[in-house]
Amino acid sequence: MPATRSRSTSRGRSSANKAAPKKSPAKSPSSSRSKSKTPTKKAAKSPSKTPTKKAAKSPATKKAAPCAKYKPKSPPILNCTPDGYTPTPLISNMILCPGNLDYFFADLIVPPMYAIGLNTPNKITIFNCVVRVYLVVGALYTDRNYALATSLLFIQQILDCADGQCARRYGLGSEFGAWLDHITDEIFGYMYAGTFIYMIGTHNGWYSVPLYIICVVLAIMGLGGKSTFEAKDTYIKFKDYKWNHVLGMYQEFYMSYIYIVIMGLFTLKGWLPDP
């Protein structure tokens, strides 16, 4: 029992203290005390200082461990899939599923971006915001350079994956970073959809077929995106996914191709204003 041990040791220490004064006259008076005190002070100081310094330095040296242990997933699309999901050969293909390309290129650009100063997920997210603003306001609306806008759509999609890959590679994930990524994605979705609808409405008429088509497409995309955020925020496993969650997951897989198809179709049909 711990209580009995503590009591017995306390009694043993008290009896030793009582016996000590009887033997003290036989020893030298002052020299024995000075010699007995000095080693105890040195012994108390030396072990207490050295471990504290080593313990303070050890966490700093272990910060690089997540980078050393990080291994890219294969196929790369597994970075955004829920628990319990097994990709099919179609989904695992790099070309047939563009989400693999997004995360593959994101893994490639994260170390160089880290080296030049974009060394946190939040910095990459803010940099992607600059790209997105120029995409919508500059390339799409002002310049009407649809080829450049399509290229920037693919680039912003890679950057959208890069902030998450930076968090995984260097262990820099945070709740604020997840919120920032979520809110910037929503803002970009509204900016892109609103600008696209305005351009098609002013060019074809507010009751035209192209406007109805783009409104239906963007509404489905909005539903899928909202369902994806909901599933990720609640950490739902794949077996518990509903139809809207599955729609959002596959939409995320093919988002780059969806952008290209929409932009290419509306450009070839003449439904967008002339450059």
Give the secondary structure arrangement, pairings included.
Elements: H1 2-23, H2 29-61, H3 65-69, H4 89-92, H5 98-115, H6 121-142, H7 146-170, H8 175-204, H9 209-234, H10 243-253, H11 255-268
Describe the structure.
With 275 residues, this protein is mainly α. It has a domain at 80-268: Up-down Bundle (Four Helix Bundle (Hemerythrin (Met), subunit A)). Helices cover 76% and strands 0% of the residues. It has 11 helices and no strands. α6 runs parallel beside α8. It is globular and about 55 Å long. It starts with a helix and ends in a 7-residue tail after the last helix. The model is unreliable at 1-65 (pLDDT under 50). This is CDP-alcohol phosphatidyltransferase. Residues 34-44 have a biased composition (Basic residues). Keywords: Membrane, Transferase, Transmembrane, Transmembrane helix. One of its GO terms (molecular function) is phosphotransferase activity, for other substituted phosphate groups. Residues 1-19, 57-69 have a biased composition (Low complexity).
